[in-house]
UniProtKB/TrEMBL annotation:
This is Fe2OG dioxygenase domain-containing protein. Belongs to the iron/ascorbate-dependent oxidoreductase family. It holds the Pfam family DIOX_N. The keyword Coiled coil does not apply.
Length: 355
């Protein structure tokens, strides 16, 4: 198992002006260096009330009876509830499935969820939809800034992520990691178990909302060390809610030939938290932003990406199939849906995604 190192210091980016090329360059630098950065609450599309309300719904759902949650158990289209130990994000290294519960919401259509909702959430359909929409809006700002950084048309990514033009693989996810007081964690062994196994995300970008005092996320540094990610970095003490942590997923890394990094991360029970007199449950909200399913992952027309490819060589490109820029002549590009299907098959053992 890799060693633990000092907490990572990631840049905090203000996305209030998504058309500022200097911000685009700063974001690109963070995405290429760490694969992770924060965006502060100021430039996001959320108020503290939006975030509190969404966490409230999540707590309400996870506290509901198991029999109710069972009515929306996760299906091969990646929507629904997965119980404790159901998901194993790092099957090669985990002896037990993840110490977490999760609830995934896929696309909404005409304001309606395209999946069964449990009784605890049935009357909150429009709130959940609104929150997912706000996530999508904030992702549009980020994708615009990344396009500016790459010196391509600002709408290159956003036009391919517009849910109005077709189904997408985007998922809003509620996550619950019980504290050490919970019977569900009685078997947890430090250094053997994890709350969420080491993995990279599958989509374009991921937004992560965390609560103060509920730590656990770590990222793998290039030196192979696990670095805790502070929930509230030094610069943002006075913000109304902790900054949103953003990371690059496998698809965007593939699309940019590995220039943007899809960094491996995991969630643990920090020892200090286990020994604390007052250990807390950890709740997070995650939005996995994906392009429209039919999007062809054509090479990104960016001289920055081309320069990176020339420097590293196609062989160094990441992901499934080596990177969008090394498409063999006569072959058609992968679609976003095909890219996602290959990743889900590896995680859940599902052979088909019928989203
Ligand atoms: O809950 C967290 O802190 C991270 C969750 C995560 O990485 C994921 O669900 O992909
Ligand atoms: Fe993740």
């Amino acid at each position: 198992m890799s060693d633990l190192t000092a907490p990572i210091k990631l840049p905090v980016i203000d996305i209030s002006d998504p058309h500022d090329p200097a911000v685009g360059k700063a974001m690109l630098g963070a995405a290429a260096n760490y694969g992770f950065f924060y965006v502060n609450s100021k430039g996001s599309d959320f108020s503290a009330e939006d975030v509190d309300h969404a966490f409230g719904l999540s707590e309400r759902f996870f506290a509901s009876p198991a029999a109710e949650k069972e009515t929306c158990r996760i299906t091969p289209n990646n929507r629904g509830w997965s119980g404790m130990h159901t998901e194993t994000l790092d099957p090669e290294h985990q002896r037990t499935g993840d110490f977490k519960e999760a609830m995934n919401f896929g696309d909404f259509k005409d304001g309606k969820a395209q999946q069964p909702l449990p009784a605890s959430l049935a009357t909150h359909e429009s709130d959940i939809h609104t929150f997912a929409n706000l996530c999508n809006k904030t992702c549009s700002r980020i994708l615009t800034l990344l396009a500016l950084g790459l010196e391509i048309p600002p709408d290159f990514f956003t036009s391919r992520h517009d849910p109005a033009s077709g189904p997408t693989g985007s998922i809003l996810r509620y996550l619950y990691y019980p504290s050490i007081y919970s019977p569900a964690t009685a078997s947890y062994k430090h250094d053997e178990d994890v709350r969420a196994g080491a993995h990279s995300d599958y989509g374009s970008i991921t937004l992560l909302f965390q609560r103060p005092g509920q730590p656990g996320l770590e990222i793998l540094t290039p030196a192979g060390m696990w670095a805790p990610v502070p929930i509230v970095p030094d610069q943002s003490g006075a913000d109304p809610f902790p900054p949103i942590l953003v990371n690059i997923g496998d698809l965007l890394s593939y699309w940019t030939d590995g220039l943007l990094k899809s960094t491996v991360h995991r969630v643990v029970f920090p020892l200090a938290e286990q020994r604390s007199p007052n250990p807390r449950d950890r709740y997070t909200l995650v939005y996995f932003c994906h392009p429209v399913d039919a999007t062809e992952l054509v090479p990104v027309p960016s001289r920055v990406v081309t320069g990176h490819r020339e420097k590293t060589g196609a062989a160094a490109a990441v992901g499934f199939g080596g990177g969008a820029g090394s498409l063999e002549p006569g072959k058609r590009p992968l679609t976003a849906a095909e890219h996602l299907e290959s990743r889900l098959a590896a995680t859940y053992g599902f052979t088909k995604v019928d989203a």
